[in-house]
Amino acid sequence: MKIIICLKQVPDTRNVRLDPKTNTMSREGVESIMNPYDRHALEEGVSLAAQYGGTVTALSMGPPQAAEMLKEAIACGADQGVLISDRAFAGADTLATTYTLANAVLALGAADLIICGKQAIDGDTAQVGPGLARRLDLAYASCISKIHEVRNDCLLARRMMDDGYDELEITLPALLTVVREINEPRIPSLKGKMNARKAVIKTFNAADIGADTALLGLAGSPTRVARVFAPEVRGERAMLEGTVIEQVKELAAKLEAII
Amino acid sequence: MLKIDEKLCIGCGVCEENCAFGAITVVDDLARVNDKCTLCGNCVDNCEVGALFIEEGEVVPKTDLAAYSGVWVYAEFRQGKIAPVVLELLGAGRGLADERGVKLSAVLLGHNLGDSARELIAQGCDEVLQIDNPALADFTDEPYANVLSTLIKQRRPEIVLAGATAIGRSFIPQVATVVGAGLTADCTELAIDEDGSLLQTRPAFGGNIMATIVCPDTRPQMATVRPMVMKALPPDPHRRGVVEDLKAEQFNLTSRVRVLSSVIAEPDKIRLAEADIVVAGGRGLESAKGFALLNELAEVMGGSVAASRAAVDAGWIDYPYQVGQTGKTVAPKLYICCGISGAIQHLVGMQSSETIIAINRDAAAPIFNVATYGIVADLFEILPLLIDELKGAK
Ligand SMILES: Cc1cc2nc3c(=O)[nH]c(=O)nc-3n(C[C@H](O)[C@H](O)[C@H](O)COP(=O)(O)OP(=O)(O)OC[C@H]3O[C@@H](n4cnc5c(N)ncnc54)[C@H](O)[C@@H]3O)c2cc1C
Ligand SMILES: Nc1ncnc2c1ncn2[C@@H]1O[C@H](COP(=O)(O)O)[C@@H](O)[C@H]1O
Fold first, then answer.
1. Which of A184, B37, B355, B359 lies 20 to 30 Å from B235 when distance is taken between CA atoms?
2. Each residue's pLDDT expressed in tens, for chain B with a length of 394 residues
3. CB-based contacts of A235: which residues, under 8 Å, 6+ apart?
4. Residue B12: Cβ within 10 Å count
């Protein structure tokens, strides 16, 4: 089974802040990390390959330093890392990103299974997986929380829904996006780390994957960011005073008035 | 590409400080861009001397914008019911359509749709396009995406809205890909600007930043919208509208994914999004036992429980109860939070609640900035007393 995992390097959004007064972004302590959901995608690919036989390719579109993340993916069990990198990709929204990744997958000679994270924590769009599936004309399901079994021409999996879950039979080749519940990602083994150190990350540019520059990056993106600003918070804030008993009585009275 | 006008740049370093990606460094009093640049434009907005600009490459052939007209709402239908978010979208869509002076339509796909189209018209739309077909009984992405994208190509709406639900977030990106449209995920605010384009506002970077997105050169403008942020109109059973039954034969309804079974979680979990009273707990509850206390409070109040991500990650309560950026959005009459610090990612999921009550022993906790009433105290002291007090009142 040939498996491709799509991984994105993202700023650790836990530390990104916008100063509400000046509207400026502070990047103190913001480092680049592997998108947390993609870690689960990678783990699933690596364990499927171990169970059913196959190879795992870690694929990313991003700036040159994303090669480090791909080495980490190799340390976690991927067989090879492929980076698609070109200044022409800058400013890509999800439509241009799926175009680029689709060309990259075709250049790699297609796959039986492609796994993406549910969403990337920088944009939280969750659009690249479904868009890529469509471009490659693959069977698709999102938010997979369990892969029960892989058969010759299909796999059985569980999909999370808002009101519960669905059990699905998905024809192969397919593209899935996965949620955190699907597995517990492993930490790199010693052997994995050694593989990563020796690994050479293959890097391709726009021309290598036969991409039309008019469809890449900002030029190929229908969306534009018109404005960024700090989220507003409401500031009512009436603190209840007094002893614990007094506070509880006052609160209970307020609650009874509301209910 | 991000360009720097070397004549204007004074090397002040404001752009370097503001770049979340570490893509700019000032060398010899001149800003320099490296490969980490994502063209987010933040530096351009912040440069006081106007030395930075984004140079657009070749532009894709322009769409004839005037050929697109009308606002569409995807009317999600599952388990025999219209999803509540659809009514909210019709409320928002009505406003947008009136401002543009165009029709508001709903697209209803599924099987055994019954009277649902009437309900949609009562909620504000002028027209319902529907297909009632067994092939659409279960949700799978392919046929749903095929139908909606074919319809969009045929009829050219200028705006297409859908709920940011599991279903909407799954297949709407496929539709946008097929029709080559821009799509903004998880919007919390929609407006029309002077030239009639849709301003789509959404949280980004884990909720730390809000961004307004536009699609200046392409149509339709597509957005998924968070449940519980838009307001539904009061239903008007006398409203008139047109219901058009579409012929299923003109669409490709085959699917390479088959739903073998659907399991609906306990009704309690679904209730959370619609509950009038929500009692939420965070890390401050310290254990699953702490949640038992919370459950008791929810029970005396007739409310539903919810949790912060910290509590879900700790395993004290299941994910469907999580409120916030990566959980549910709720907007109940009353939201009581106990032992929740009020991280922005939690706030985005609950700050439209009518009344917010916060109990936290740290007076500096940011949750108090959004609280209507705040109590600085140990929740393990307050909650048992409060439960007794409320029980006594009954
Ligand atoms: C991309 C991203 C997405 C996220 N999505 C979400 C999301 O959807 N929802 C979400 O909730 N979070 C989300 N988070 C996490 C969020 O940033 C916070 O970490 C989380 O909300 C904190 O949960 P908490 O308030 O329960 O815990 P803490 O921040 O640890 O706060 C616990 C609070 O309890 C108080 N406390 C402790 N003991 C007591 C006591 N005995 N009595 C009274 N008060 C007490 C403390 O003073 C403290 O303020 C997300 C983060 C990221 C980066
Ligand atoms: N630049 C990229 N390179 C590789 N994979 C990506 C990239 N962007 C997004 N993805 C994949 O698509 C998923 C969803 O991303 P998003 O649509 O940006 O939220 C991620 O979890 C990744 O698996």
1. B355
2. 788 888 999 999 888 887 877 788 898 889 998 877 777 777 888 888 889 888 765 555 567 898 999 999 999 999 899 999 999 999 999 999 999 999 999 999 999 999 999 999 999 999 999 999 999 999 999 999 999 999 999 999 999 999 999 999 999 999 999 999 999 999 999 999 988 899 999 988 777 788 999 999 999 999 999 988 899 999 999 999 999 999 999 999 999 999 999 998 765 555 787 888 999 999 999 999 999 999 999 999 989 999 999 999 999 998 889 999 888 889 899 999 999 999 988 998 898 888 999 999 999 999 998 999 999 999 999 999 999 999 887 6
3. B369, B370
4. 15
Nearest C-alpha to atom 11 of ligand 1 is from which residue? B308
Task: Examine domains B65-250 and B272-393 and report if their fold is the same.
Answer: yes
3-state secondary structure of B72: strand
Give the strand order in the sheet containing A55-61.
A202-204, A80-84, A55-61, A2-6, A113-117, A174-178, A139-150, A154-161, A164-171, B257-264
* Alpha carbon of B321 to ligand 1 centroid (Å): 14
Q: Look up the pTM and report it.
A: 0.85
Please indicate whether, in this complex, the C-beta atoms of B212 and A249 are within 8 angstroms of each other.
no
For residue B326, how far is its CA from the centre of ligand 2 (angstroms)? 16
Distance from C-alpha of B194 to C-alpha of B33, rounded to nearest angstrom: 34
Q: Are A6 and A60 in contact (CB under 8 A)?
A: yes
**Residue in A33, A97, A105 to alter for ligand 2 test, most ligand atoms within 8 A of Cβ:** A97
Within 10 angstroms of residue B318's Cβ, the number of other Cβ atoms is 12
Q: Nearest CA of chain A to the CA of B86: how many Å?
A: 15
Has the ipTM of the complex gone over 0.90?
A: no
CATH number at residue A221: 3.40.50.620
From A8, A57, A85, the mutation candidate for ligand 2 (largest count of ligand atoms within 8 A of CB) is: A8
Residue A194 lies in a domain: yes
CB atoms within 10 A of CB A104: 23
Question: Cis before residue B267, ω within 30 degrees of 0?
Answer: no
What are the sequence ranges of the domains in chain B? 2-54, 65-250, 272-393
User: How is domain B272-393 classified at the CATH fold level?
Assistant: Rossmann fold (3.40.50)
Q: Beta-carbon neighbour count of residue B357 at 10 Å? A: 22
Q: What is the CATH number of domain B65-250?
A: 3.40.50.620
The structural domain count of chain A equals 1
